[in-house]
Design brief:
By secondary structure, this protein is an all-alpha fold. It contains three helices and no strands.
Length: 89
Amino acid sequence: MPIERTRNLIQAGAFLRDLAANMALPKHVRTEACRLLRHFPSVSDVEAIAANEARLQEVTRSPLRPNLLVTEFDPEWLRGYMHGPHIGG
């Protein structure tokens, strides 16, 4: 479902942030998390992709072109992630 896919992207970015900041983890794990975050979609990237999908669906008016993501963001998705969402950078 699009909302589940969106939630998972947001949570994966937050998880990578937590890994990157966790000094109890080995340096190579933190370094890899940082490397992955550099190219991982931020919250604003996910929102932009979802908005573009919605516009494309309006233009094509095709039920065969389902949205893969949603623009809604529930802050509850980030409960338990100490460093919050991936905001880029």
